[in-house]
Automatic annotation (TrEMBL):
Monomer. It is an enzyme of class 2 (transferase). One of its GO terms (cellular component) is cytosol. Residues 141-370 form the Radical SAM core domain. The keyword 4Fe-4S applies. The gene is miaB. It catalyses: N(6)-dimethylallyladenosine(37) in tRNA + (sulfur carrier)-SH + AH2 + 2 S-adenosyl-L-methionine = 2-methylsulfanyl-N(6)-dimethylallyladenosine(37) in tRNA + (sulfur carrier)-H + 5'-deoxyadenosine + L-methionine + A + S-adenosyl-L-homocysteine + 2 H(+). It comes from the Bacteria. It comes from uncultured Rubellimicrobium sp. This is tRNA-2-methylthio-N(6)-dimethylallyladenosine synthase. Residues 370-432 form the TRAM domain. It holds the Pfam family UPF0004. [4Fe-4S] cluster 1 binds at C12, C48, C82. The keyword Cell cycle does not apply. Binds 2 [4Fe-4S] clusters. One cluster is coordinated with 3 cysteines and an exchangeable S-adenosyl-L-methionine.
Length: 432
């Protein structure tokens, strides 16, 4: 009999992808995915520890499952992801209805872990095993034209605010041959675009030449038309990778390159190991290689010690770069990180700065989107749009585009004339 699995994922794209892989693995155990928690036999909360709010959500979610559990006593509740890794057995102590806690480096063991749950055990698995977890996962199965592909995991950077080095462990790169095999498997299933994932994806060293070499190998895979990667660190942006942006047409002209702050004092306190001017010089070199490159970034406001002057430096950096989009967050102290020991900035001040920064970023995003109007852009159609008769897809600059188009164009890259810039997407018409 098939059982039903409900997965709820928080956090980064890596977590989204891990959620997909866990669902694929559990499909082999007779679990069929549902988007309705009420009919689930197992609920998998795939959690994020990055900010306090994200980490606390898991407990409110578990609370909300109470009536379901009351109605269905053998409902399984599993907690995966970075909160699982960070809090381990504490989760079951605080929320006894949880059956299983599994960290991101152990999810390949889910079938065995669930068998132990079936025998009545409460199971906590947060080891960092030495084995290649990908070797133990089932082959990829996807029907989407664009797919994620994990090439690197973990982080050795230890930014003073961040839990990721603790929740995801040390940097590990998957070998070139394995990545190429997986890419070919995806392409054989109709995938035209891959996004290479890693916590520090440009620190990939699965072969000589680093990420640039991997991009160039992937570009030779016939049928694969678009390559992206995320998230990169400014200090790992080497000459070869910058050059690849100019020379490799399959490498898309959109780059997420987090900078966090525009103040040298704060960058130092954050342990980012570069100055604002280094970042600006890097942006200049990238744009010299690929003039239409659109940049995106992450920012934190109200990091301990941040003054109004430091914040002005962040605004100045944003003004100078002109981002296509960016994510920004008010600083959240995280247990176990060095910054959590420092005197915090007043949360109201941090929030006020966040709003000012977001207003500036929103203006820049709007400008980037408006610059696309009247242009003819190649769009990879991914799925039906919100309105009947519409398809949505992505432009090379990773902007969502909605077009009246037949569903048969799913998986095709088609020229689209952009007619309007909406808040978070573009609309257009088939140009052919
Ligand atoms: N590996 C990536 C992303 C890490 S997490 C990188 O190096 O950039 C994604 C973003 O969350 C970070 O870039 C940072 O802007 C934000 N973030 C991380 N820890 C945070 C904290 N304690 N408070 C607020 N924002 C945080
Ligand atoms: Fe966190 Fe810094 Fe590593 Fe990014 S580089 S994951 S922000 S420690
Ligand atoms: Fe969150 Fe873990 Fe990703 S803390 S941002 S889910 S690496």
């Amino acid at each position: 009999m098939t059982k039903k699995l409900f997965v709820k994922t928080y956090g980064c794209q890596m977590n989204v992808h891990d959620g997909e892989r866990m669902a694929e693995l559990l499909a082999g155990q007779g679990y069929e995915q549902t988007d309705r928690a009420e009919e689930a036999d197992m609920v998998l909360l795939n959690t994020c520890h990055i900010r306090e709010k994200a980490a606390e959500k898991v407990y409110s979610d578990i609370g909300r499952l109470k009536p379901l559990r009351a109605a269905k006593p053998d409902l399984r509740i599993a907690v995966a992801g970075c909160v699982a890794q960070a809090e381990g057995a504490e989760i079951i102590a605080r929320a006894p209805s949880v059956d299983l806690v599994v960290g991101p480096q152990s999810y390949q063991n889910l079938p065995e872990l669930l068998a132990r749950v079936d025998r009545g055990e409460k199971v906590v698995e947060t080891e960092f095993p030495a084995e290649d977890k990908f070797a133990r996962l089932p082959g990829r199965k996807t029907r989407a034209p664009a797919a994620f592909l994990t090439v690197q995991e973990g982080c050795d950077k230890f930014c003073a605010f961040c839990v990721v080095p603790y929740t995801r462990g040390a940097e590990v790169s998957r070998p070139l041959a394995r990545v190429l095999d997986e890419a070919r498997t995806l392409v054989a299933q109709g995938v035209r675009e891959v996004t290479l994932l890693g916590q520090n994806v440009n620190a990939w060293h699965g072969a000589e030449g680093g990420l640039a070499a991997l991009v160039r190998e992937l570009a030779r895979v016939e049928g694969l038309d678009r390559i992206r990667y995320t998230t990169s660190h400014p200090n790992d942006m080497d000459d070869a990778l910058i050059a690849a942006h100019g020379e490799e047409p399959k490498l898309m002209p959109f780059l997420h390159l987090p900078v966090q702050s525009g103040s040298d004092r704060i960058l130092k306190a954050m342990n980012r190991k570069h100055r604002a001017a280094d970042y600006l010089a890097l942006v200049q070199r990238l744009r010299a290689a690929r003039p239409d490159l659109l940049l995106s970034s992450d920012f934190i406001t109200g990091f301990p010690g941040e003054t109004e002057e430091d914040f002005d430096a962040t605004l100045a950096l944003v003004e100078e770069v002109r981002f296509g989009m960016a994510y920004s967050f008010a600083y959240s102290p995280r247990p176990g990180t060095p910054a959590a020991e420092r005197t915090p900035v007043d949360p109201d001040v941090a929030h006020d700065r966040l709003l000012r920064l977001q207003a500036l970023i929103t203006r820049q995003q709007r400008e980037a989107q408006e610059s696309m109007v009247d242009r003819v852009l190649p769009v990879l159609f991914e799925k039906p749009g919100r309105q009947a008769g519409q398809m949505t897809g992505k432009s090379e600059h990773l902007m969502a585009v909605s077009v009246t188009a037949p569903e048969t164009l799913r998986g095709e890259i088609v020229p689209v004339r952009i007619t309007a810039a909406l808040t978070n997407s573009l609309s257009g018409e088939l140009a052919a």
